[in-house]
Amino acid sequence: MKKTVFTILAALALLMPGTAAAQDLFNHLAVNAHVATTGVGVELSTPITKFITMRAGVTCMPGFSFNAEVDGQYYDYVNTTQKDFTVNLDANLKRTQGSVIFNVYPLAKAKVCSSFFLAAGLYFGGDKLVKIKGHSDEIANDLKQFGGTSYIELGDYKLPVDANGNVKGGLKVQKVRPYLGLGFGRYVPKKRISVTGELGVQFHGHIKPYTSEGEIEAFDELTEKDDWKKVMDKLTVYPMLKIVISGRIF
User: Fold this and answer.
1) Is the dihedral angle over the CA atoms 193, 32, 114, 241 positive or is it negative?
2) Is the pLDDT of residue 18 over 50?
3) What is the pTM of this model?
């Protein structure tokens, strides 16, 4: 996927007339503030040629949280018994991502639609998509008194509960994620201020559950009938809708 992104960029650049015009190389700098489905962020943008703009920045997803009750099981090794329980689980969407992206303006010299662009690049960091944590005083007391093992059920996955009655984990994606998009507007304004709209997707690969003790797959075999697993297997892209306000510094 990474090779595909850079191949597209190189091909577009080679097909454009005037790409080698060095007079536009890094002659302007702009700061961009955005709101997107990935959160809020800032970028710095600079033209490489009349047809290509490079941008790099940071995007932060605010710490939106929600909670739900989930079922769990505790195995008492001393009395060889099993006990069901429920625990309140908190989930948090907070994460920070970096990005390096190239905008290609194929109609830069046209009288109409000159601000239309194709975008390609990479997002990195922020691989933990959702973080979860929970605690059970009841299970903490049982584990200290009798030992044994305990876990909560998330789909057909088992998240282990530690000796203090805590469970920590979440869902994660790959650390480097290719990006493709398109939009209308200029990240480096011709005047002082511009507004840009952009639509694209991050290719984050398969979503993987994790705990503070390692990958979930180590704790349970998955079944073909597991609906949650099917959703995670199919949800390999993250859609992005982005509104940008840009201001040219020089």
Assistant:
1) negative
2) no
3) 0.78
